[in-house]
Design brief:
This protein is mainly α. The protein has 5 helices and no strands. Helices cover 69% and strands 0% of the residues.
Length: 129
């Protein structure tokens, strides 16, 4: 099934809105957010170390797992040199998005991942002009 230009524009718009949701994409903002995250993590760790051995709610553990995964993916984005390149073509993006286990793809079907991949490809291609 082909994606129409109108559908593609809508997909790109949605993806860009998700990326720019808080409007703060500069390095100092990222540093502030990470420092706050570190402070929160240290407070949580301190509280856990004071607690007796007990079961924690599964919803809470899910949030900790998700936060750890997001931090891991953020680290990989900055430190791992294996990045997609628009010169490799849209197909490389689609292939990568389809096989990815990143949280943003959880519950997304093949078609939605393809749309997201094309949107990312077009955005990267525009930025690399």
């Amino acid at each position: 099934m082909k994606t129409t230009p109108k559908e593609l524009r809508q997909i790109i718009k949605e993806e860009l809105e998700a990326v720019m949701e808080d409007g703060h994409t500069d390095v100092p903002s990222a540093i502030r957010k990470l420092k706050t995250s570190m402070e929160d993590a240290m407070q949580i760790l301190s509280a856990l170390e004071q607690m007796p051995e007990t079961e924690l709610p599964s919803w809470w553990m899910s949030k900790v797992t998700l936060a750890a995964d997001y931090l891991n993916k953020s680290r990989d984005y900055l430190l791992v040199s294996e990045k997609l390149d628009p010169s490799d073509g849209a197909g490389s993006y689609v292939k990568d998005f389809r096989k990815s286990d990143a949280p943003q793809f959880k519950g997304k079907g093949k078609k939605k991942r393809q749309q997201m991949a094309i949107a990312a490809y077009l955005q990267d291609k525009e930025e690399n002009k």
